[in-house]
Write a structure and sequence with these properties.
Keywords: Metal-binding, Oxidoreductase, Zinc. GO terms for molecular function: metal ion binding; oxidoreductase activity. By secondary structure, this protein is an alpha/beta fold. Helices cover 28% and strands 27% of the residues. It contains 11 helices and 19 strands. Strands 3, 5, 6, 10, 11, 18 and 19 form a 7-stranded mixed β-sheet that branches.
């Protein structure tokens, strides 16, 4: 048996339980010792029973989808991994519909049917447990020098996927695409990140690395630990408590890209109104029913059409973005060796996981240490 942190939807409980230890049953599988699991808003929503489903007939769902693990055993057909390797596993698994072209092409993050499964979220147990068995094809190798920060990979994949899509959209502007450097495709453009949580801060690091003049717009007044990180990476921190959206527009100038990572619909819409011509607005979080959109649809449509703007939503990530996130974590670590680890506020033992899941401790990123 292994230990696991699980949510019981029927009884509305979150408990540290004993769970049967998994074993390799297929030659393409890998057995993993889970080292760390990040806690995020999705986990807290599941604990609040807003969504999330246990697998099959199970009465509980093992939580956790942001994981770092060590390989302990490999199936006989696995050649790319060996015991002792560090890996990060993907979250979403493809649907079984042969007509779903996205899943058939290993792009389950764009699944057409919506019947995909997700580790720790939808019909699959998660990683907040000692041991897991997974298919080798869903694992990504991690250099040993990234051991202390690799648990940030999955949150970074959200920004990686967003940036890829933004650049693909901007390929519609050939004069811009031809002028942009492959190393710094954002050179000459301005990006505004809404929110200074882990997804926002990692996104800001990515946009700075890509050459964007980057601003982070968040609630708390500076100075604070988040504003310190923003300034340390060469971006600009602005507080919504002291800087109105109109003042934000004056300070930034032309806003070419907005990366929303704060789950605050009214503020997001206010910023959307100030998006520049040909600009892109990327939503990464769902909106709370407590904060509904208040939008003049006629005016919004006019802006979108007359200014050639684009709005996209993005969630989860595919294999390429996981690999890119690991590579960028290495770049971040070299560029800001004191800053990247500062995103991790605290590591907790499994015995304290419940309080971290139910409460929202201050700081930035909270990690549950498994091994």
């Amino acid at each position: 048996m292994v230990k696991a942190i699980a949510v019981f939807p029927r009884t509305k409980e979150i408990r540290l339980i004993e769970h049967p230890e998994p074993h390799i049953t297929q030659p393409t599988q890998v057995k993993l010792r889970i080292l760390e699991v990040g806690v995020c808003g999705t986990d807290r929503h599941i604990c609040a029973l807003a969504f999330g489903n246990p697998p099959g007939e199970s009465e509980y769902l093992i939580l956790g989808h942001e994981a770092l693990a060590e390989v302990v055993e490999v199936g006989e057909a696995v050649t790319q991994f060996r015991p002792g390797d560090l890996v990060v596993p993907e979250v979403r698994r493809p649907c079984s519909d042969p007509a779903c072209r996205a899943c058939q092409a290993a792009h389950q993050d764009f699944c057409y049917t919506g019947t995909y499964t997700e580790r720790g979220i939808q019909n699959l147990h998660g990683y907040m447990t000692n041991m897991v068995v997974d298919e080798a094809s869903y694992l990504h190798p991690v250099p040993s020098e990234l051991r202390e920060v690799a648990v940030l990979t999955e949150p970074l994949t959200i920004a990686e996927k967003a940036l890829v899509q933004a650049l693909q959209i901007q390929a519609r502007l050939p004069w811009r695409t031809n002028a942009a450097s492959s190393d710094e495709p954002g050179r000459g453009l301005r990006a505004v990140v809404l929110g200074a949580g882990p997804i926002g801060l990692l996104g800001a690091m990515l946009f700075v690395t890509a050459g964007f003049e980057t601003y982070v717009y968040s609630r708390a007044q500076a100075p604070n630990e988040k504003s310190t990180i923003v300034e340390a990476i060469g971006a600009t921190y602005l507080s919504s408590e002291t800087t109105s959206v109109e003042q934000l527009k004056e300070r930034v100038g032309h806003i070419d890209l907005v990366y929303e990572a704060m789950d605050a619909a009214p503020l997001a819409i206010d910023v959307l109104r100030n998006l520049h011509r040909n600009g892109i607005f990327i939503f990464t979080s769902g909106t709370s029913p407590d904060h509904p959109f208040n939008i003049d649809t006629a005016a919004a449509t006019q802006h979108l059409t007359s200014k050639n703007q684009a709005i996209i939503g993005t969630v989860n990530a595919g294999p390429a973005t996981f690999q890119s996130a690991i590579e960028h974590l290495g770049i971040f670590q070299q560029r800001w060796p004191q800053v990247l680890p500062a995103l991790i506020t605290h590591r907790y033992p499994m015995e304290q996981a419940k309080e971290v899941l139910l409460a929202k401790p201050g700081g930035i990123k909270h990690i549950v240490s498994i091994a």
